[in-house]
Amino acid sequence: MLNESELTNPSLLSNEIKEDSLLKKVWLEFYKNRIAFIALIVLGIVVLSCLLAPLIAPFGPLDGEITDRLLPLGSTGHILGTDEQGRDMLTRVLYGGRLSLYAGFLPVVISIVIGGALGVIAGYFGRILNTIIMRTLDIFYSFPAILLAIGISAALGQGINNIVISISIIFIPPVARVAESAVKGVREEEFIEAAKSSGAQSISIIRYHVIKNIFAKVFVYGTTQISISLVLASGLSFLGLGVSPPTPEWGIMLNNLKGQIFINPLVTIIPGLFIFITALTINLVADGLRDALEINS
Amino acid sequence: MLKFLTHRVLLMIPTLIGVSIIVFLMLQIVPGDPVDSIVPVDASKEVRAQITEQLGLNHPLYIQYVDWLMRSLHGDFGQSIVRQLSVNALLFPALLNTLILALGAGIFAFVISLVIGVYSAYKPKSWLASIGNLIGLTGISIPNFWAALILIGIFSVLFGWLPPIGMKSSVNGGSFADVFYHIIMPAVAAGMTTLGVMTRMVRSAVFDLLHQDFVQTLQAKGLKPFRILLHVLKNATPNLLTVAGLQLGYLIGGSVLVETVFAWPGIGQLIYQSVSQRDYPIIQAGVLIVSVIFILLNLIVDLLHSIIDPRVRGS
Amino acid sequence: MNTILEVKGVSKSFPVKGSFGKSKGAVSAVSDVSFSLKERGTLGIVGESGCGKSTLARLLLRLIEPDEGEVLYRDQDILTLKGRKLNQIKRKIQMVFQNPYSSINPKMTIENNVAFSLWTNGVSKKEARKKANDYLEAVGLPRSYAHRYPQSLSGGQRQRVAIARALVLEPEIIIADEAVSALDKSIQGQVLNLFQDLKKDFNLSLLFISHDLNVVEYMSDEVMVMYLGKVVEKGSAQHIYSNARHPYTKALLNSEPSMKVGVSNLDKHQLIKGELPSPLNPPSGCRFRTRCPHATAQCGNAQLPTIEVNTGHHVACHLWDMGTGSLSQNKQSDVLPI
Questions:
Q1: Whether B233 contacts chain A with CB within 8 A
Q2: CATH classification of the domain holding A172
Q3: CB contact A145 to B (< 8 Å)
Q4: Is the pTM of this model over 0.90?
Q5: Contacts of B61 (CB under 8 A, 6+ apart)
Q6: Which CATH superfamily is domain B90-276 in?
Q7: What confidence tens digit (pLDDT) does each residue in C96-114 have?
Q8: β-bridge mates for residue C77, sequence order
Q9: What value of ipTM does the predicted structure carry?
């Protein structure tokens, strides 16, 4: 049987060449996309410096002399100037990023886990379970996201974790929708029927066949949500629903500084600049990732 | 058409009920007794009991809900806790101001995104297409409250051209020109996200359509590029309309931050102030009203969609 | 030869819902189908697309639950089984699906695709992979393919993987549902021969479903012809192909283009008129009567007889009824008794 035409095709018989894993192929494609790659490096630097803030920040986040207030950019010892209390802006921005990034990333992770699970259950088992889950989640589409987040945050009370909860809640329905429609597509595939006829349990089919095939879609969707989550979280914090001063966080820092726009506009906009750069690079990375995955599927 | 309409309206009812339940329950999860936020700290037990009785808080939850729903359906949203005014007297003027701002932001975003989006789909290698790319990415990445601060920094602080806050001048304000003068920066800031989303959306929708078979047929027939573009736009209209409608909804509910920065007397700012003052009747009514507008807007978009594209009615 | 699988009066219809969940009626996909498969035999099932062949296959595997009927595997009705007992018998009947691009999980290696059937039934992963490799070799795939992903395989190679996956559970019956239809002609032959070889090597009984008359003739000992969910004719392959009795079978055989150079048989015979009727509320009585050149008033009667016109050769048609069953014995094959 081995002397058949399709098996003697030399390109198919080059067995020695180990096939690249999908992950490696996606990475190679991503690497070729210069803009996305540079964005990833910038994002990496921002995230790392924030995480390492206690090691690399020149001052303590709460240290400041009121006499040094609102020093301009490039002042000696304060490269990004100082805020309205005379605290070093670079230090505050690095420390502040830790909470902002936390509130940007965590809701996406939570909503992927919970929304993904709901979507898989609704999509795989269908029928009445689908109707109950999806119609309930549909209700959340009738609220403008920010307003709902403000409402939930307001009800839960001030706190960065309450911001995380409220953003997670508004992100769960769309993630569930993406997962559900992806599962519905996969469920019709013949390999699911083959698995069923081999006597496999639903749990096993979901684990090995369903989740593996919808993960990329849900993951790519999740990456596009990170920047939205970051901007939303800092917005809620800007409204005073997150941490209380003097704890640094990009949103609340921007709010505290906004009154100084007439005195020192350049220093005032710095925390927002970091939110913007982080969100922008995340979007560029997400776009690059989506393109790389599309080419490889 | 009538069948489609009734079908859609009937489908709206469970959604509206669900929304009202969520809005009602949202404030039930508030820690602590709501009476605390009304009565003075040193109030006597009798006073507390009287207030509890007055607000119906001694009844079971579902009765409170039905009671609240019935009153809301009659347009009675109660009294503001903090300000000695009815919720309606505060809410509806603010809602009007928000609609004005949302409309301004929508016009700004839709016009620019349509021009740039279509052009960059048509000539993807042009410099305008690169700018379109940049606008799309910036729009979806920029926090609008930060954009608002930058606009103030440039046009109010640096050049002194535009007023940094408010909706009208304190002296002789309120004319169309005056409001227009005040609305420019808030509208641009609020429309930023919509501009980004719509530019990307228009570009990819038109780009996809330009590469379909029917366009090649039209080219083969020798149609002028402009006429072909008209065909493409006609095909893109239903989807663009849907997205535009949704975005208008987001603008109505999502301008809280911009309204706060510019002190625009809209519903967002009112809700935000009520959040910090724990004025729950206003929050409840505000979120409910905005959501109902949002749902109605979706309905209108669906109806327009079905008029333009009759295939929708079948499904 | 013993009968390994006997199907008695199996039916399935799907309700069709209109707006607001109102029922619009039911699509009768499979109606009162009976047949038996002999041990180590091959039964071919032919019919146009939409005739219920694939639904029938899924009913036998209980991927879809039948409305009524019995499916006896070695005299045991598998429709009444549950749990472990069902799973044990399920493994004895395995299917090779139509579309090799949809029937293999693209996110698993070839090896894991095959091994999954085993480890999901409690075999250790190491053991399962070892066995999977043995079967991949048996279907003619080089060992080095085991760690590849399906995207680098051709359609024919994928179908081999699908066959290995069915075999790894050591079944006694293989249902091949249009298993070569998606393949190039040149590859079809290889896969068909593979089926023949494996059937011998592993003592398999084969249920071979296809719309392609040539393929079914090549593979089958016995043939069953279906039209709109019903069996119209069944018998030995020899009888059916040389002496078809049902007007539909005849028309079907006539519509197959000749493979001989320069010979066209298409215009010489009557082709089937019209379109396949909607399976939603199909014609009463004989479902073929709306397109049958010989239809009479009695064809609409609810009671449609099944007549044995030859040993083991059954036809569901009034033409062979009328108490003149013996007439058929001496009839010329292409002349109908009217």
A1: no
A2: 1.10.3720.10
A3: yes
A4: no
A5: B28
A6: MetI-like (1.10.3720.10)
A7: 999 989 999 998 999 999 9
A8: C72
A9: 0.86
